[in-house]
Predict the 3D structure of the following.
Amino acid sequence: MEKLENYYNQIKNSPVFFGMNDEELKGLLECFNARVRRYEKDEMIIRQGDLISNIYLILKGEVNIEKDSYWGRRIIIARLGKNDNLALSFVGSKNVESNIDAVTVSDTLVLVLGYEKCTSMCQNACTRHKILINNLFQILSKENIELIQKIENVSQKTIRDKLLTYLSNEAQKKHSNSFEIQFNRQDLADYLNVDRSAMSFELSKLQKEGLIEYNKNKFELKS
Amino acid sequence: MEKLENYYNQIKNSPVFFGMNDEELKGLLECFNARVRRYEKDEMIIRQGDLISNIYLILKGEVNIEKDSYWGRRIIIARLGKNDNLALSFVGSKNVESNIDAVTVSDTLVLVLGYEKCTSMCQNACTRHKILINNLFQILSKENIELIQKIENVSQKTIRDKLLTYLSNEAQKKHSNSFEIQFNRQDLADYLNVDRSAMSFELSKLQKEGLIEYNKNKFELKS
DNA sequence: ACATTTCTGTTGTTTATACAACAAAAAATA
DNA sequence: TATTTTTTGTTGTATAAACAACAGAAATGT
């Protein structure tokens, strides 16, 4: 069993609790009945159809937001990591079932917060709750922008354009033409919605043409 | 010049101001320096690169959320209408430039609210602001879920699957197998990221096979 | 160090889509 | 009503991607 205390500092500095003092944070964690849960690789934290009433904060590890298409093809919507939240939007939209799976990519620790119970108790009256909802609003905003960017990535017509758009966006995020990506080839293909082998082929073509250089997960944009 | 008063009831019942009494709403509208703005068909309300500090509420008309791809292809991310908000996520993420265009599809009236100014004034202290931020959180949640659904639609492999996924999702939204869609053929193609003529062809094939029936914008799912 | 599994790149073939060009229908305008 | 413009459907062709099958490299486990 993992102890919450071990992660206290990390929690305190996470976007969810940003701007709170120790007193507010401790009160909130208690009110939320906060607990740490451990998942192994390839476990499902959330399934399509689940009704979500908890806020999940990733303390350690990586999680895929996925969807299985009608005939079993996997769609990766996003890859989340440390300090990211899971399925916040389903907490905000009450009584809406999850339309995604959250699947661990590696061993993962998650902070689980009983959002529903807490909000009904304190009626949004306390200061800490006011800070919290402000933070949640900002977090969702960011998620929204990320989703739009993902739509841009997958909406390109050719594999080449998808790759170039994705890589440019990553470079911009990392503020450098040289960066590591979070996906392996198969996952990147599922994220961009293309065939892995065709994508591999296109990657090496881009390298031969001198547009990019890469080695494993390390990429560099030339030009 | 359009008068705000003419739309007062609609504004009062919009999701942004849901749950407020008249006093709170009036105070907020004043604090926001609320004003109605008119746009003609094909005008741009928001451009890529804009810094957004206003909340936009559509009172009348329709608006496309679009993105122009590198080589001039148009991507329609969403079609918004009455009581929808524009670019809320850019208000939530401060100092982030818009990565989308908002373009009117028809003559449109928009309520513009100076969010920045208001929040700095009342420091989130007043009740009405608390209700507001709660509402905004919920609205963003819904937007988020819609974006995920859009990703599902465009992530299908074939035109046929994109169409079937899109139409099923619409049927579910409208709670009926018979429904109207908001797009004309070209716009639907830009939304699903496919060639219009190929899509038209696939539509008639689906009709011949008896899977769907349609006439102009009216569709029916058979099975 | 070896065996096994996972990951990545390469190639040929089949299939689906984009693209272009056009015709018919519908809508808008004079 | 006639004319013009916009929208939609149809077809053939060129192109790009999916798929399958495989080989080598890298990572993992024993």
